[in-house]
Each structure stands twice: as structure tokens, then as C-alpha cells.
Design a protein that fits this description.
By secondary structure, the chain is α+β, with helices and mostly antiparallel strands. It folds into 2 domains: about 140 residues, 60s Ribosomal Protein L30, Chain: A (2-Layer Sandwich); about 180 residues, Alpha-Beta Complex (Phosphoribosyl-aminoimidazole Synthetase, Chain A, domain 2), CATH 3.90.650.10. It is built from 10 helices and 11 strands. Helix 2 packs parallel to helix 3. The longest helix has 19 residues. It is globular, with a radius of gyration of 20 Å. The structure holds adenosine-5'-diphosphate (ADP) and magnesium ion (MG). The site of adenosine-5'-diphosphate has 13 residues, from helix 1, strand 2 and strand 3. Adenosine-5'-diphosphate (ADP) binds next to helix 1, strand 2 and strand 3.
């Protein structure tokens, strides 16, 4: 099988909403009047972002999920994506699993594959997603990192830290009960991008970011862009590990400090962190209900730059964020 048969068999479907899909030199998208295109790329590299032996179905899911998460953070509605793929060999069972996982998530979000590139090389998956954001009264409705205001509440969606917990278990660093491991592993390998929440938060949230490299690190990007700081309550944050809700949770095996580290700096969560004024509390809960994604208020935005962690007593938790710094590929 050659490159073109491969593309035809595994990555070509008739164009649905796109004006032109796979097969020509370019795909054509027709943005609707009164909308902007939101565009984002993410690359997944074997050994760095996933284990070589990971199930191709979940890999297909995750490659698209991490991109849809960026659209979610912007409050953009997914439209289409392109896939640039480097493959060491043509492994048909692998390709079949990968494309099934990819299209299952794509179909769930009405996001169609419109083009890409295929080449031989070390396994590498790069997806670019295109989404739609309305413009109202000349103003983009996109959620940006830069809109947080002092006094705003700070929220996070869903749960945090479980992907990191699974990673530690896969690396043999912790032993987990089977049911806890299964749930955590699903979070690591098949994250659910919070697209519906991002859409519901348009006009409600003042700023948003998706959490891919850990809450504290990504939050600091949002704070810097907004020219603000924040105070975050670690006694609330600690409960964001879903595993803690399991009756057979391995609490004694994992120190509180470690749990907090997974929550604050675990990475691979693909939840949304966002701010909204206190006057919007009901609107935020309504958005969460609409989206079917719970949100938790974990702190507030301050005028003073920097991030302060407090515990239940209001005392400043660890003075510096040293052990909680974000993942950086080049650090
Ligand atoms: P070109 O050489 O003009 O860039 P290619 O020969 O690489 O075009 O690709 C042929 C067609 O197949 C193009 O429409 C391209 O977008 C599409 N394509 C290539 N690889 C993929 C892929 N992995 N997934 C989806 N479409 C792809
Ligand atoms: Mg090409």
C-alpha cells in the first residue's frame, strides 16, 4: 500500500460542511458571515507525549482531543481539522485503530477532516483545528487569556490530577486499585475536551485557558496576559482529583503533598480554567449545567501580580511554587 491508498482508505471521507475536503491541493472552508475562524495546532511525538505501545484508538482520540481543547478554551465551535502524520511503516491494524479513534471524536463534535500530509518518519502526529467564533457588534465573542479582572472569581472545570496519577502508575511509581487505575487511565488516554462548556461560557467568562501543562503553569499564562494575579485555595483544589472519590482510593499510598502536586502541576488534564465576575455566579453554574460539566470555584483574581496559594485556614500554603512549576519541554 502506498501513500495515496493509505490516505484514501483511512483518512478520506466525503466533505460534509466544508466547501472542499481531502483530495485537492487545498481544502476550502466557507466562514459564515459574522464569524471569525479560530485556528490552533498541537503536535504529539512518540516517547514525549505518548508511549510507543499505546492503543492506537485512544491515540487517535487524544490527538484530536488536545486540539479541540484549545478551541474550547476560546469558546470556538469546532468546524474542521487537518492531520499531518509521519509514520515509520504502514501498519494497517494500527492505522485502522487510529482512524477509528480519531473519527469517533471528530463525529462527536461535528469536526471534519479536510486535509493533511502523510510522510515516512518517526511517529509524529500534528493536527490543526479550525473553529468558529461569532462577532457581535464588531466585537469577537472569543474567550481570551487576557480578560481577567481583579475581584473576579477563579474556576476550574471537571477534575484535575488523574491523568498524572495514571502516568505515575504506568511508570510503576505508584500502585493503584484496578478501578481507580482504569478511571485515571481513561483521563490520561481519552480526555474529553470541554467544548460545550467553552461555548456556554461565551459572554459569561472574562478570561479562559485550557489546562494542558498543569493548572498553576497555565493559570500563570492567563494571569500574565490579563496583567493580574490570583489567590488559589489548595484545600478546595485537593478534592479535584476524581480518584479521591473512589471507595478503594489508595489514599495512604500517595501523600497529600503528592496529590496536591498532581492537581496543581500534573499536566494532561484538558480542563478549562476561567475567571468570571462574582455577579455571574449563577450564569456560570447555568453554563456548567448546560454543558454537563461541573465547575469549581477555586480562588479569585487579584490586582497584585503573582499566584498565592492559601490553605483552609487562609494561611499562605507553601511560600514558593517550586515543586508545582509547570511542565516545560525545554526546562
Ligand atoms: P500535496 O503534495 O499537494 O500537498 P498530498 O499529495 O500530500 O498533496 O495530499 C493529497 C491530498 O490528501 C491532499 O488533499 C491532502 O490534504 C490529503 N492528505 C494527505 N495526508 C492526509 C492525511 N493524513 N489526512 C487527511 N488528508 C490527507
Ligand atoms: Mg504533501
Amino acid at each position: 500500500m502506498g501513500e495515496f491508498d493509505l490516505i484514501t482508505r483511512y483518512f478520506t471521507r466525503p466533505a460534509a460542511r466544508a466547501a472542499l475536503g481531502v483530495g485537492d491541493d487545498c481544502a476550502l472552508l466557507q466562514p459564515r458571515p459574522g464569524t471569525q475562524l479560530a485556528i490552533s495546532s498541537d503536535m504529539l511525538v512518540e516517547g514525549r507525549h505518548f508511549f510507543a505501545d499505546v492503543d492506537p484508538f485512544t491515540l487517535g482520540h487524544k490527538a484530536l482531543a488536545v486540539n479541540l481543547s484549545d478551541l474550547a478554551a476560546c469558546g470556538a465551535k469546532p468546524l474542521a481539522f487537518t492531520l499531518a502524520l509521519a509514520l515509520p511503516t504502514i501498519d494497517e491494524p494500527w492505522l485502522a485503530g487510529f482512524s477509528r479513534g480519531l473519527f469517533a471524536l471528530a463525529d462527536l463534535h461535528g469536526c471534519e477532516l479536510v486535509g493533511g500530509d502523510t510522510t515516512r518518519g518517526p511517529l509524529n502526529i500534528c493536527i490543526t483545528v479550525f473553529g468558529e467564533v461569532p462577532v457581535a457588534g464588531g466585537k469577537s465573542q472569543a474567550l481570551l487569556r487576557s480578560g481577567a479582572q481583579p475581584g473576579d472569581d477563579l474556576y476550574v472545570s471537571g477534575t484535575l490530577g488523574d491523568a498524572r496519577l495514571a502516568l505515575e502508575a504506568l511508570r510503576g511509581q505508584v500502585a493503584l486499585p484496578a478501578s481507580v487505575f482504569a478511571q485515571a487511565r481513561a483521563r490520561l488516554e481519552q480526555p474529553s475536551p470541554r467544548v460545550a462548556l467553552g461555548l456556554a461560557l461565551r459572554g459569561v467568562a472574562s478570561a479562559a485557558i485550557d489546562i494542558s501543562d498543569g493548572l498553576l503553569g497555565d493559570l500563570q499564562h492567563m494571569l500574565r496576559a490579563s496583567g493580574t494575579g490570583a489567590t488559589l485555595d489548595t484545600s478546595v483544589a485537593i478534592d479535584l482529583i476524581a480518584a479521591r472519590a473512589h471507595s478503594d482510593w489508595a489514599a495512604g499510598l500517595i501523600s497529600l503533598q503528592k496529590q496536591l502536586q498532581y492537581v496543581l502541576a500534573g499536566g494532561d488534564d484538558y480542563e478549562l480554567a476561567f475567571s468570571a465576575p462574582p455577579s455571574a455566579r449563577q450564569a456560570v453554574q447555568h453554563a456548567a449545567q448546560l454543558a454537563g460539566t461541573p465547575v469549581t470555584r477555586i480562588g479569585q483574581i487579584d490586582a497584585a501580580p503573582g499566584l498565592r496559594l492559601i490553605d483552609a485556614s487562609g494561611q499562605t500554603a507553601p511560600g514558593d511554587l517550586g515543586p508545582f512549576s509547570a511542565f516545560d519541554h525545554f526546562a
